[in-house]
Amino acid sequence: MGGRVNEDLIKERRKCTFDIKELTHIIDCGEENTIKRKQIDNYILNIKELWDDVPEEYLSHKERYENAIKKAFIVLKVLRQLHTGNIQITDHRTPTNVYSIQDGIFRNVNPLLIHIGLFWSTIAAQASTEQQAEWLQPDSSMIGTYVQTELGHGSFIRGIETTATYDSTTDEFILHTPRLSAYKWWPGGLGNTANACLVMAQLYINGTCHGLHIFLAQIRDFDTHKPLPGIKVGEIGPKMGFNTADNGFLGFDNHRIPRTNMLMKNVQVLRDGTYVKPKHDKLTYGSMLLTRVTLISDLAYQLSKAATIAVRYSAVRRQSPIKSNEPERQILDFVSQQHKLFITIASSHVYRVVGLWMWNSHKRVTADIHEGNMGQLPELHALACCLKAISSRDASALVEQCRLACGGHGYMMASNLPQIYAYTTAAVTYEGEYTVLLLQTARYLVKFWRLAAEHKPLPQNFAYFEDYIKKNFEQWRNSPEGIIEGFKAIVAGKTKAAYDTLQCNLRNGREFEEAWNMASVQLTNASEYSTISRNDIEALQSRYEELLALIRPNAVGLVDAFDIRDEVLCSTLGAYDGRVYERMMEEASKSPLNEDVVNESFHKYIRPVTMKNKL
Ligand SMILES: CC/C=C\C/C=C\C/C=C\C/C=C\CC/C=C/C(=O)SCCNC(=O)CCNC(=O)[C@H](O)C(C)(C)COP(=O)(O)OP(=O)(O)OC[C@H]1O[C@@H](n2cnc3c(N)ncnc32)[C@H](O)[C@@H]1OP(=O)(O)O
Ligand SMILES: Cc1cc2nc3c(=O)[nH]c(=O)nc-3n(C[C@H](O)[C@H](O)[C@H](O)COP(=O)(O)OP(=O)(O)OC[C@H]3O[C@@H](n4cnc5c(N)ncnc54)[C@H](O)[C@@H]3O)c2cc1C
After folding, report:
1. Segments of the chain with pLDDT less than 50
2. Ligand 1 pocket residue status of 96, Cβ below 6 Å
3. What HEC string does 477-518 produce?
4. Domains in the chain, please, with CATH?
5. Would the ipTM clear 0.90, i.e. be above it?
6. What lines the ligand 2 site, CB under 6 Å?
7. pTM of the model
């Protein structure tokens, strides 16, 4: 759509005091990545079939899925071409090769996300070399998903009921769903798209349960796509978001797979049924760990989208004068609006940096594990748990804050803020629910507080526990170092409080698990504080309003530096040109309810009532 850039935005960009491109290169981890990202964006933007102009809100549940699948397989074909063309394309904003531009294509989620983000990555991480050679062919017919959660169990995965029983007479595993609560429920792409899946099931050999293991199972015929015998599969229905993905359900009726379909990099079942244990019994949980790590970067990217939309709109929207005898002001001039939005820009940068640090930490620890050293795994797990929990809670809260800061127009689907919120808030639940993961980190904190309380040696990362006990903390200084020291004191204090409550519950005769449950609110609080979150930064930094004023002239420049294309933002409020009202009117004209001057419902339902006895 043509037309002049909004005058207020032009002025805002003139006010900017830093080099926007330089910040974009920092966000992309280098200018060469910016160039590569733009190449990919342009390449995919030129595929016309991907950019329909029928808003998905006007499609049926079925049409929305079919439209998304059409696009997903165009993208998959392109990715295969690019990869086979040896162009290693990595979008450093989400170091998972999840291409930022996909948000624009699907406006919701790519139905192949779990195929790309969990199915392949789990095979690459947990299948043996021979299995990878067989299953990871670039032109494979397998379209997979990751099938763990059941109707009856999501958080407590040791309670998963699906069984995989070894039959030595035929050298097979028998996958079985013993009851309704054991039906797999939720996996992305399972309902209609996937023809294969990685199933998390309880392994049984000669009546002994060896716990959860991962098995590759084909569930549909590669050629006809019909479910195989013994497979009951379908789609779970509409959700709050993610409605371009067919999350599904799956039941096995004594479905047989070869023994060699158990992922056997870290653990083996030999032909005679011998079970060869893994070096660490949580290696099977590795895909959850990796996804939690990747989610931090993705959430940072969702924040950058919401901030871009809300800040640009706030620079364009004029509402209410500050002095009655003056013109209406840009709402971005209201300090309360700056308070709502600038923390979102900051949080996007914080979680992008943390996400990249965690991504590199995961690579380092994975290399150690490959060498047989499991020592760093517990800390990586504890960090991934609290960081995924806090980043998803912060991101969903801040995206909603951005939506609310845009008034009624933020409530329009055409603003794209509702979809970004629906997408982001799901991350508080999936891949490990918020409270459940915070309690995992609490286990780790309590373990080291116990050592500190017993004056035993502590790893360097927990030296501050000892400082706290010896009251070595300095007076709070209003500087970054002072704030970090303050946080350490808060975490130590919260951990001590939870630990003391735990000890008190035990002294009162409670068993450990009950004592833990009774202290769980304090335990989650300690975990939350082990991660600096948005509210804490505001609360701690005096001169806060002065800092908002410092940011104000650069606010639009800061979001322009995220360099998110209009086609990806998909937002009437956030487009680069700021022509909000023209875009809103253009989107409204697409509503099917504007096709007829008088909708047929008038004659069918309204007129017989309103004109009764009047003709
Ligand atoms: C797909 C993403 C791709 C790319 C990302 C990019 C963008 C993202 C965008 C969209 C993503 C889209 C869709 C998301 C798809 C969602 C998929 C899913 O949700 S898959 C299912 C996820 N399910 C879970 O996460 C379940 C949560 N529950 C658990 O993890 C476990 O039940 C729990 C850890 C809570 C407990 O396990 P349990 O076996 O009971 O252990 P216990 O608590 O007794 O602890 C024992 C011991 O083990 C340690 N430990 C536990 N887990 C791990 C681990 N993963 N790694 C290492 N160590 C672990 C634990 O600390 C404890 O140690 P100590 O005894 O304390 O020493
Ligand atoms: C959009 C989306 C996509 C998903 N994709 C997949 C997928 O591809 N593959 C897959 O396998 N799964 C997937 N899931 C499922 C997801 O992993 C589960 O929903 C998640 O693990 C939570 O489990 P649950 O829903 O059974 O909730 P539950 O485990 O029943 O928890 C419900 C509530 O109980 C409380 N609670 C539970 N346990 C504890 C505890 N120990 N202590 C304190 N409180 C507790 C918490 O408040 C929690 O919110 C997806 C889910 C969503 C929403």
Report:
1. 85-98
2. yes
3. CCCHHHHHHHHHHHHHHHHHHHHHHHHHHHHCCCCHHHHHHH
4. 143-285 (2.40.110.10), 435-530 (no CATH)
5. yes
6. 114, 146-149, 154-155, 186-188, 242, 247, 426, 429-430, 433, 435-436, 439
7. 0.96
